[in-house]
Sequence to fold (251 residues):
Amino acid sequence: MMLSETEIKRAAVLIKESPYTVAFTGAGISVESGIPPFRGGDGLWNKFDPSFLEIDYFYQQPLKSWELIRKIFYQYLGKARPNKAHDVLARMEARKLIHALITQNIDNLHQQAGNQDVIEFHGTTGRLICTACHQTINDTAQITKLIENLPPACPECGGLLKPDFVFFSEMIPESARERSFTAAQKATVFMIIGTSGDVFPAAMLPPRSKQTGATIIEINTAPTSYTDATTDIFLEGKASVVMEAIEKALE
Ligand code: NAD
Ligand code: ZN
Fold:
């Protein structure tokens, strides 16, 4: 299916007139930054056994867990930079065209692109948290220094530091969950960008938003489980291409 100019215009008009617009992003928005999705052919889980990201394994084997975390999330994926889709969302926030940005990604790229208020549903690699005294560290240079010696130790109390993202079998941070569902329910337009909708509870946000009256705009390179069931306007294409077209149509 070709990206239709009429549908882009329709989406832009809805966004312009919407008093409260939410953008909800997943791994797909970062693919063009060189970060592969975790599942599927090229996916990370075909190369690594994801058990090192189980929360119990982390506490039992912090050194082993950290060795893979550093390699994958800080050395390999740490080099990724925001792409045009992230940039458009940062400008839309500044122009008050989106009122909340919820991401499932842990890659910190929305924050790097300049979004001031990112609701981090699954946390971020951009912050470490002490498992003993709970202080957080978000200075990139300091993080790089701290993870030279694994497992990294808290500069305050010597406790074990953990990346402040959500491990498997770990709870969603209460404030992010609360803020996300509140925003979804308040939304008049809800944009789904690059997410398959397979990861729960995040996947419940678009249907919740639809139930409470939002128009759902979906951007993806291929249809998802949302497309027939939840989406009102499906814009098929790469996130960067579609987001730039929307921005242009907003002028
Ligand atoms: P997913 O891998 O399940 O789905 C990705 C979706 O993006 C697919 O529907 C795919 O068709 C689409 N897509 C691929 N390339 C695209 C492009 N260029 N433009 C637009 N769409 C594109 O991802 P998910 O739904 O976010 O679930 C994966 C979970 O794993 C997330 O909850 C997240 O926490 C984590 N994850 C994070 C990252 C990251 O931080 N960048 C990367 C992979 C996975
Ligand atoms: Zn500490």
Q: What stands out?
A: The beta strands are 21-25, 100-103, 118-120, 123-130, 136-137, 161-165, 189-193, 215-220, 233-236. The first strand starts at residue 21 and ends at 25.
